[in-house]
Amino acid sequence: MQTDRLLRLIRTPSVKKAVAAVFILFLLYLIAGFFILPPVVRSVLKNRLSQQFHREVVIQHVSLNPFTLSATLKGLSIKERGNSENFLSFEGLYINFQAVSIIKRALVIKELKLTGPYLNIRRDADGVYNFSDLLVRKPEPGRRPAASAILKFSVNNIQIINGSADFLDGVKNVRHTVRAVNLTVPFISNIAYYVNSYIKPSFTALINNEHVSFEGETKLFANSRQTSINLHIKDLDLTHYLSYVPFKMKFKIPSGYLNMDTVISYVQYKDRPPLLDISGGIALKNLKLEDAKGNQVMNLPLLDTSIVSSDLFSKKIHVSRLVLTSPELDIVRNPNGKMNLLELLPETNAQPQLKKKGPQRMPLINADSIAIKKGRLALTDLSLGKEFTTRIEGLNMNVSHFTTAAGKKSALELAFKTEADESLGIKGNFSVSPVTADGSFEIKNIVLKKYAPYYQKVVRFDIEQGKLGLASGFSYDGDVKHGVENITGMSINVSGLKLRKKGDKRDFLSVPVLAVNGVDIDLLNRKIGVTEIKTEKGALLASRQKNGTMDLTGLMAAAPKARSGAQTKKKSQSAHQWLVNLKKFILNNYKVSFEDLAPDVPVKYSVSRINLRGENLSTARGSKAKIFLSCIPGAKGSFKLRGTAGMNPTEVSARLDLKGLEITPFQPYFTNNVKILVTSGNISTSGSLSLRYVGGKLAASYKGESALSNFASLDKGNGDQFLKWDSLHFGGLAVNSDPMSVQIDRIALSNFYARVIMEKNGFINLQGIFNAAGNGPAAARPSAVPQPVQAASAVLARQPSGPARMVKINTVTLQGGTINFLDRHIEPNYSANLTEIGGRISGMSSIENTTADVDLMGKLDSYAPLEITGKINPLQKNLFVDLKTDFKDMDLSTLTPYSGRHMGYTIRKGKLFLSMQYLIDKNKLDAQNHIFLDQLTLGDRVDSPVVTKLPVRLAIALLKDRSGRINLDVPVSGCQ
DSSP letter at 239? Predict the structure, then answer.
């Protein structure tokens, strides 16, 4: 029944007409779609595009498929303006529409495929692009653009196949090519039904013959607007793009390649800040940097970075690995003092930039590992007047767990060597916020001569040899005001050090070994602590020049004079002095050689086997250190000093022992002041020495015993032996410099010999021992003033003006003395020996109204006794002498030379007894001379030019008593 009704309905005229109409419309649709619309669309599209682009447009073929709702456009080309070259073209464009577009009231495209697209871009020398005219739109006057509603769309299966492009840059004279472009975008839509469907775009191309590709996924129109792209770049040649750097480059990059395999994600939220996340790997290969002259500055074979998920917008970066392999860096400091790296930086605008208000947040950067492997660094300094070069090789650095997070530390290891086998190693930890660091470092085999250009202007000597080693712990805390820097456990080692003055061929200082251990430096509290300083087997050569200057004082270049303001500032800064503590100082087996060129005869002297010890040395006020010093002065002497020393104030209290110091090497220092030549003699002393330097004044004192032994000297005039003794001993010696005082308990002179000669001119050699004013011999003229008065006057003349100086000598002892007298004033010469001289002088003092007791004795030619007794005080300002001299049983025949010269007769026999009493008080002489002659008998007549005209024989005869004796009293008095 139902079928019959349907058939009857179809057969009705109205239905037949409707079906026929639909068929006709469908047929017209097909005819229009296949045959009519394509040429119309081709023509309209060609005209409209030509008008829009102001260029010739060519379209080879347009086809439509009304069944599939698809359109194909083939052979489209847009020519360059004014010529026949292609500006834009493609081989084919295929679009497949969907009928659901009508239902959705949106543009829905099932497939869009573009085949063989080509774009030709050109920039002329004036900077104008070949499409610049397309960017300029002139709005129609009086017409405002109408607001348009948002078009709903859904485009699927977007494909660009085998695209290409050319870019000719006439400004930079560079051509860029893009080939084999393939782009796939599966889906783009803003229709709600598709909004949560992800699409995965992909891109591949050859850009300047370098492969570039990326893959990703995106939700462009969701509330989060999330986009994710996988970016793949392999061996992208960076040199092609340097011409587009937005500043003038002062360097060249001859090579450099970029590799990227990263994922970049962007998410934009409505209720919180957007997110830009990056992860993956970035690598630079064969990157080379040269300066404008073509000199290499940097060579980076490989920089490999692996980035963990990092949010760039929130400044949170996490790097899992950053490795620089075999980097090379050439750093040059030019003659103007500028670094070549700084000169490569672009010029900046001199206008000051406004500072952003508020605290700036530091980026949060985390790096699991940062490493430099087999790095090389070349350093050249041309700013010093003398070129300095060095090469750092084998540079290896590892930083673990680097972070800029507050309070967290990172671990660092760094090591390298130089071409001279110098090495540096650092191990430690550091933090960025706050800036802190702690760890240790070690430097080995620093060749000191190598760095001469840096100290040549400061010192006036050369370091011929020497290596330095340094190792220490360190800490720095930047959280404290001005920072707190500490050095802990530092050790310094110097080996084979040799210093030489410029132009000299000898080393003035040689230090084979110097070790400084346990150095702690507290910069905040200005404290330095040292456990031990030790050195051995060194040598020092010092000299004094002809002008009297010491060569060692000129080893440092003169410092520039500081301004008064700078001096005041420096003084205020040094108000808080450094506290230095040294537990132990050891100096073993050193030698000091001294050469003095100032005297007429240069002096060469050496002190060997110098050993110095110090314990607990400190600059703390009142601190005392133990010191010990021993050495061998000269050839065979010995010196020892043991005691304590302080630096604040400067003072020394020590026991001093000196034995066998030879004085002959020092002869040139006094050879011009004396007329004798010292042939032997040595000084010994033992006692307590005290030195104190306070208020710019030195106070010294010494208590002990001293001796000058085995002394011998010759007369320079005739070479005869002049003065010698076995021992001159000073016992109970006490000397003070402030106030000046000398106290001697006893002076003992034993086994001494003196040669007294009266020359032909009547001058006694004793008078000319000391040259006048220290310059040349004294005038050889006899004096009429008595010798005791002359001696006293000489003593007073040598005393400097100023406060009185106290001198006290308790006892002077003479023993075993011999005086040989030779008178060359007469012919024949007379000689006599005063032997067995002994006795003492007691109680000499510079104190007023004190006198010394004199008790001396001896023999003339070993048989005639001599005795001198009385009181003297030669140390006072006003000389006092009260002496009695007794001479007994002297054989007068020995005086024949005198009698023959003055009396004209020899003496055949006779004895002389002489008693003299001399009193000198306040420069007044009062003398009593008692002369007793026994059996004086004259002999033969003697001719003499100065013989007296008196009747000598008659006078002697008249003076004799019945027993043949002559007894005379001869008083003498006068004033100086």
Answer: G
SS3 call for 743: strand
| Kind plus residue range of the DSSP H or E element containing 289 | strand 275-291
Secondary structure element (H or E) that encloses residue 31, with its range? helix 13-31
Q: Name the DSSP class of 550.
A: B
- What tens digit of pLDDT does each residue of 778-830 get? 344 344 333 433 443 444 444 444 455 788 889 999 998 888 877 777 777 77
- What is the rounded CA–CA span in Å between residue 571 and residue 576? 10
Q: Strand pairing of 57-65 and 86-97?
A: unpaired
**Those residues with Cβ within 8 angstroms of residue 643's Cβ, 6 or more apart along the chain or in another chain:** 626, 627, 652, 653, 654, 655, 689
Residue 87: phi, psi to the nearest 5? -95, -45
Helix intervals (H) in 674-815: 787-798
d(CA 908, CA 892): 8
**What's the CA gap between 81 and 76, in Å, rounded?**
16
CB atoms within 10 A of CB 441: 16
Alpha-carbon gap, residue 238 to 255, rounded angstroms: 7
pLDDT tens digit string along 941-956? 888 777 777 787 877 8
Are the beta carbons of 171 and 211 closer than 8 angstroms? no
What is the chain's length? 976
Residue 155 predicted with pLDDT over 60: yes
Lowest mean pLDDT, pick from 122-131, 436-445, 837-846: 122-131
Question: 14-23, 520-529, 779-788: which has the minimum mean pLDDT?
Answer: 779-788
pLDDT digits (tens, 9 = 90+) for 143-154: 555 555 667 777
- Higher model confidence: residue 804 or residue 662? 662
Cα 208 to the chain's mean position, in Å?
53
Longest Cα separation, the chain: 219
Beta carbons within 10 angstroms of residue 212's beta carbon: 20
Average pLDDT over residues 260-277: 76
Q: Indicate the average pLDDT of the chain.
A: 81
3-state SS class at 47: helix
Looking up tokens 């007429």 gives 600
Contact between 765 and 759 (Cβ < 8 Å)? yes
Q: What is the mean pLDDT of residues 469-480?
A: 85
Bridge partners of 410?
430
Q: What are 628-648's pLDDT values in tens digits? A: 999 999 888 899 999 999 988
Q: What is the pLDDT of residue 212?
A: 77
List, in order, residues 6 or more apart from 604 with CB less than 8 Å away.
Answer: 593, 594, 595, 596, 665
* HSE, side-chain direction, 13 A CA sphere, residue 589: 5
How far is it, in rounded angstroms, from Cα 175 to Cα 166?
Answer: 7
pTM over 0.85: no
Q: For 545-649, where are the E strands, in sequence order?
A: 579-596, 603-618, 625-633, 638-647
Omega cis (within 30) before 739: yes
Closest CA to 522 of 560, 477, 553, 458: 477
Strands annotated E in 787-923: 806-823, 830-845, 852-860, 864-873, 880-891, 905-921
* The pLDDT of residue 236: 84
Strand-pair partners of 28: none
**Both structure tokens of 397:** 């650095």
Torsion of CA 800, 802, 808, 812, to 10 degrees: 10
**How many angstroms separate the CA atoms of 569 and 805, rounded?**
44
The CB density around residue 225, as the number of other CB atoms within 10 Å, is 15
Quote the percentage of the chain above a pLDDT of 70: 82
**Per residue in 206-257, pLDDT tens?**
888 878 777 766 555 555 556 677 778 888 888 877 776 766 777 888 999 9
Percent of residues in the chain assigned helix, strand, coil, to nearest 5: 15, 60, 30
876: number of CA atoms within 13 Å, CB side?
A: 19
How many other CB atoms sit within 10 Å of the CB of residue 957?
12
Helix, strand or coil, per DSSP, at residue 76: strand
Are 684 and 731 in contact by the 8 Å Cβ rule? The answer is no
